Amino acid sequence: MTIDRDSIVAAAQRLGGLVERTPLLEADLPGGRVWLKAESLQTGGSFKLRGATNRLLQLSQAERRAGVVAFSSGNHAQGVALAAARLNIPAIIVMPSDAPALKVAGTRAHGADIVFYDRATEDRVTIAAALAEQRGAVLVPSFDDPDIVAGQGTAGLEVVEQCPEPVRRILVCTGGGGLAAGIALAVPQADIVCVEPKGWDDMGRSLEKGAIEPVGPNPPPTLCDALQTPLVSPITFGILARSGARGVSVSEEEVKGAVRWAWEKLQLVVEPGGAVALAALLAGKVPIENGTVATLSGGNIDPALHLAIVSGSVA
Amino acid sequence: MTIDRDSIVAAAQRLGGLVERTPLLEADLPGGRVWLKAESLQTGGSFKLRGATNRLLQLSQAERRAGVVAFSSGNHAQGVALAAARLNIPAIIVMPSDAPALKVAGTRAHGADIVFYDRATEDRVTIAAALAEQRGAVLVPSFDDPDIVAGQGTAGLEVVEQCPEPVRRILVCTGGGGLAAGIALAVPQADIVCVEPKGWDDMGRSLEKGAIEPVGPNPPPTLCDALQTPLVSPITFGILARSGARGVSVSEEEVKGAVRWAWEKLQLVVEPGGAVALAALLAGKVPIENGTVATLSGGNIDPALHLAIVSGSVA
Fold first, then answer.
1. Which of B79, B155, B194, B311 would you call most buried, defined as having the most Cβ atoms within 10 angstroms of its Cβ?
2. Considering only CA atoms, which of A76, A116, A75 is closest in space to residue A95?
3. pTM of the prediction?
4. How many contacts, defined by CB atoms under 8 Å, are there between A and B?
């Protein structure tokens, strides 16, 4: 199955009315004016509803009855749970036992069954695949799937429609690269910059090397739970490599600074993993020119953690 | 000069591209699903840019050269300052010396000159009128002006376009009533509910009595700096009275609860005066039926106050 810009346009038509057209906010950074795509205001609190809905809408009636299985630390979990609930499809979500409580509660609130696993000792792919096989259910990957990538890319089409300037560069918060790859296809005229937390910058290193590299052993702890992806996929890496994308990484301090900045200056609650692209701009790691856009990919953060970050009391 | 629904439609055409089309967010409250018009994400942090831009666009070239004067505790100040800066019009803003620091900084950042007055001992109307006369400048009122009301009403037109349900009721955060009156004209089929802080509920009492009543002597302190209007105007009161609008009031505790709820559940920073309509819904003071909408009118709150409210540490 191939995926190209037409796949994104088709996804946008399919999703019409089922996902929010989130605002593209103008923001004056110390380094210049940029445009921020506020997917933190998407239904379910992140862009993940786009891909999940695009995938689930294309299931057969028999597949819908058998249900879906997904694994995710939280945002894809909520996206799949919400899309499934709207389409009356049973959903099982495999989540790490240390997933943010807010994301677990949000997933459960949409009616999904949750199966927990231990991030240190168990393999979520194996668990999810076994569950899917037991029930004859469809596994819905969080990024390694053309329909998921196409759905996420619809955010890119919106950016082009919404931005009053020609879009020249888009910084994308990157875990597995589904959003970045989708946007790269949707906006081929823009430079794509994949932003990752330091130590979890496998997409950036892979793009530099020209081949997929996993996250190194014992990656550092990060507040960016949404971006803790150990290995990107041939689909997302391939699209991004062909588009000439590159990567930059940001420190935990820079991420916290961006969460604080979004709260103070944009009136938005953004989760750490959704703030890395803004962090890269605030830290001056990518030059700001006309037509510079960054994604604010998600806002699902436990209130206590947000409070600790904005008050400066988290280490 | 009359103002009617056509005035709002004309304002919307005039403002095209100059103000944000803010999102209408779906929210599941304990009492049911509602729609929230997030004007806190408007450029300048509140709906005030709409009316200010609509007014300033209609000045003659001579008037533009002479400049404008406005008085405001902060949101109208920022709206006028920003609209004036964009149109290259000099602006003087008369602000109370106890205006929130964030609002003062925002106004100054847009290049306006600020004149402070003492809320307890000086009269801002007199000061502003004298400044306007000295300079031959045009006074831009914050609500007592048909063009201002028409501009604010464009938010109502957007709500009707954005809401997937027929709009039956709109709760509007109310100070002088410019936004409420504009929305009442824009959405004549909806019940309009003006929401005010307790002790500052002069619009509600005026509507009940059928004649304008000022705020009583020694009104209580309120966190809602944006809604501390001592007297509404014949224009706004007249429109709202003819539309059959009514008022409800909310306590300071209810306002703080709504600020907290918006932060925790909507990923939005909302100022106290912009949270009163949500507060009325959360407190069950207005029934929630299909097509219930509330404005989140502004997000300009000092970070330290927001932190204190969401952490529960403000009395």
1. B79
2. A116
3. 0.92
4. 55
